[in-house]
Amino acid sequence: MSDVDDAISAARSSWARISDTGDGVPTRARRRRTASIAKRLTWIAGAIVAILAVAMVWGMIVPLGIAGAMIVMAILLAAVLLLSFIPGERAAPPPEKLKTVDIRALPAQTERWLGAQRGALPRPAQVLVDRIGERLDTLSPQLARIEPQTEEAFEVRRLVGEQLPAFVNDYARVPDTLRTVERNGRTPDAELVAGLQLIEREIADMTARLAQDDLDNLQTRGRFLEMKYKDGDEPR
Length: 236
Fold this sequence. Notes:
Elements: H1 2-19, H2 28-61, H3 65-85, H4 95-98, H5 106-117, H6 123-143, H7 151-172, H8 188-210, H9 212-229
Helix pairs in contact: 1-2, 1-3, 2-3, 5-6, 5-7, 6-8, 7-8
């Protein structure tokens, strides 16, 4: 089975090279790739075990011989190659789709689209993209509890589904040679970073506003508990 081991080792090395960007920072996109690689390797191991188990059972009934062993080897190699190269993560959605996607799925869809643009952005902007991804993760459960036609939902969609992608696309259309050239007191790179900082803060504010009722309820219940059970007055 050395050929199979070699194939798995080669696939593992290839994935490691792809997932390592060399900057030592465990970004959200890289963590997703690592999880995807781990899942894929699990599938490969499971396929190998299943194929060998079937081959062993079949060999107890009908001796495989050299030809049978070669067929099993070919099946193993085909399974490893197939599972190594089938598409992993879903492709990032086009920005036009973000304008109409269900509000509850919008944070995840925008995060995936933004992650696909990350490599073309300057390093300070990449850090902000990761922070925005964290903000979107926090925002997502809040959106699951609001009606799509409310003003809060429209506000989130305008920022997360329209203004954020449009802003990043505006930057992407600027020629590389002009991105570090100052214009009206600020370079396009600096403009991008400043805009992403504002967007990150606004997403955080949106999350806090959507959580206001829950915060109020928590505070009210906490005060009730203090009034009812303070000074060790516990129910009997």
